[in-house]
Specification:
Helix content is about 65%, strand content about 5%. With about 250 residues, the chain is an all-alpha fold.
């Protein structure tokens, strides 16, 4: 798509219609940015088309700015206004809504004058607002709507991809570790205190057998026997618990 394949001439309905037709793919592309909202895509495309018409009517080629650079913020502004005025699902204070409107207008003016998006600091200076207020408004501008977790969603190829709820979360394998730890904790009550101490030093503090021997005042060989006996008892107790329930 060229930036100047057709030059808009004010007062010429033919050129105006041709401009709208040429840049409708751009409008549809921008509308799809909000496709995950609760609004139907067809409605978003209509709003984007209205923004495109406004961009065609207001565009001044004598300013030396490419039409696309002017049209994109105009169309996005129209989409954002639509969400702000019609689609607030989350309560936003009136003052924040007014800041959102002022920031969007400032962004469009800045884009026309500088052919780039303004930074947060530039917006704050232009509007004489605190940076925190600007950030708050920019965040609020994205909170127009909420989507039900049961709402259907589409894949990139347009095929049914289930609901949004089905796309959230994953099987956490650590649940098995929690279950195993609970079984072991129950079994630990049925071995001797010294064996519990040895297991805690070996697997809790990651000490070597020699370090454990020095800590509790026995030989390394004795520590090895204690570990083997404790682990074997735990295996038997955990297996019995899995088969018959917790030991009495």
């Amino acid at each position: 798509m060229s930036n100047s394949a057709i030059s808009p001439v004010r007062g010429s309905e033919r050129n105006r219609a041709a401009m709208v037709e040429e840049y409708m793919p751009l409008a549809r592309s921008l509308a799809r940015r909000y496709e995950r909202s609760s609004e139907p895509l067809d409605d978003l495309v209509q709003v984007a088309a209205l923004g495109l018409v406004k961009a065609v009517d207001r565009f001044d080629p004598t300013r030396g700015v490419a039409f696309v650079s002017f049209a994109v913020p105009t169309i996005l502004g129209e989409l954002r206004r639509y969400f702000r005025d019609c689609c607030w699902d989350v309560h936003v204070p009136r003052g924040t809504q007014e800041n959102v409107l002022a920031i969007e207008a400032a962004q469009r003016r800045f884009m026309v004058d500088h052919s780039r998006t303004p930074s947060v600091g530039e917006l704050a200076a232009y509007l004489e607002l605190d940076v925190e207020r600007v950030l708050e408004a920019l965040q609020a501008a994205q909170a127009y709507g909420a989507i039900s977790l049961d709402a259907p969603r589409s894949s990139a190829s347009g095929e049914d991809a289930g609901s949004y709820a089905e796309s959230l979360g994953d099987l956490d394998e650590r649940f098995e570790l929690v279950d195993g730890a609970a079984s072991i904790a129950s079994a630990l009550r049925h071995i001797s205190e010294r064996e519990r101490v040895v297991l805690a030093l070996r697997f809790g503090e990651d000490l070597t057998q020699s370090e454990i021997a020095e800590r509790i005042g026995v030989s390394q060989m004795h520590v090895s026997r204690l570990l083997r006996r404790a682990l074997e008892q735990l295996r038997i107790l955990v297996r019995a618990e899995d088969e018959n329930g917790p030991p009495a």
